[in-house]
Amino acid sequence: MEKKSKLLTIGQFASLHGINKKTLMWYDEIGLFTPAFIHPQNGYRYYSYYQSSILETILLLRELDVPIDEIQAFMKNRSAAGMEQLLREKIGELDREMAHLKAVRKTLAYHQQNMQTLLNMDLSEIRIIEKKERSLVTVDLRPDTSFDKLVERITDETKKYQLRRLHDASYGTMIAAESLYRGDFTNYTKMFIEIPFPIKKSGLHIQPAGTYVRAFYRESEENALLCYQKVLDYAAKRGLTLSGFSYEIIINENVIDRMEDALVQMEIPVKKINGISVPLPGGLETSTP
User: In the predicted model, is pLDDT for residue 113 greater than 90?
Assistant: First the structure.
């Protein structure tokens, strides 16, 4: 009884570790974690404080979704090297999962911003905004590229950058400012996909930070022509020049069934013709998608 007085009942030990005593009974039945003492007359299980660290190791591994058979194998041959390797693997898995969750949050924030824009937008308004630098994966668009081939290339890119699905990233199309000045408002040369987590790979397109002009139009070739012409007039009146590419996205694709209901947002980098920075109006909007 002196020995028993230094031990905890199964209920006390389970409560100490925040688990159900049936869990301890199951661990005992499968040989994963056995009591320090079993009363020979009534079969009651008793546990020692010294077993707490062992149980906490098991509970940690369970929380990390390590299968029971792997935990059993590890517990039978516990070592510092084995524990270090197991934890290193699980830390790597957690890092990847956290990176994915951060990417999902960024994508959700991006769509939320689009919905806010949609609710408050004025299709006739042209604005000057500031944007941060973005790294984009681009897919070339050519007149002779079939739709099936384009889908295949986009799918390949999403797999290459470990995107679980296309909607894990924002995407759109690009048209060179040179084409706009020539009056060629349909000469889209690239489709872009923004990877929503930090990556360091060659071949990415860098959308520069800086001042942009932003406008909207309802999807149609005629509306695109009218909108781009308005943007060109707007820029000319203010001594601005369009540079680089126009980046187009559909901001309401999640809430429409027909393509003709799509609302397109265009953003184009602008500079002062004489090289002086663009004077920003009082209603400047800072964009940080």
Answer: no
Inform me whether the pLDDT recorded for 280 exceeds 70.
no
Predicted pLDDT of residue 230: 95
pLDDT at 34 exceeding the cut of 70:
yes
- Greater confidence (163 vs 51) lies with 51
What's the pLDDT score for residue 3? 46
For 56, half-sphere exposure in the C-beta direction (CA atoms, 13 angstrom radius) is 7
Q: Over the chain, what is the mean pLDDT? A: 83
Section 83-98 average pLDDT: 86
Average pLDDT over residues 49-61: 90
- Output the six-digit token pair for 33: 């974690």
DSSP of the chain: -HHHHTSEEHHHHHHHTTS-HHHHHHHHHTTSS--SEE-TTT--EEE-GGGHHHHHHHHHHHHTT--HHHHHHHHHT--HHHHHHHHHHHHHHHHHHHHHHHHHHHHHHHHHHHHHHHHH--TT--EEEEE--EEEEEEE--TT--HHHHHHHHHHHHHHTT-SSGGGSEEEEEEEHHHHHTT-TT-EEEEEEE-SS----TT-EEEPPEEEEEEEEESSHHHHHHHHHHHHHHHHHTTEEE-SEEEEEETTGGG-SSGGG-EEEEEEEEEETTSPPPPPPTT-EEE--
**Higher local confidence (pLDDT), 219 or 147:** 219
Can you say whether the dihedral through the CA atoms of 210, 215, 220, 224 is positive or negative?
Answer: negative
Find out whether 135 and 204 touch, Cβ atoms under 8 Å: yes
Contact between 213 and 279 (Cβ < 8 Å):
no
CA distance 168 to 170: 7
Q: How far is CA 253 from the centre of its chain?
A: 18
CA distance 114 to 119: 9
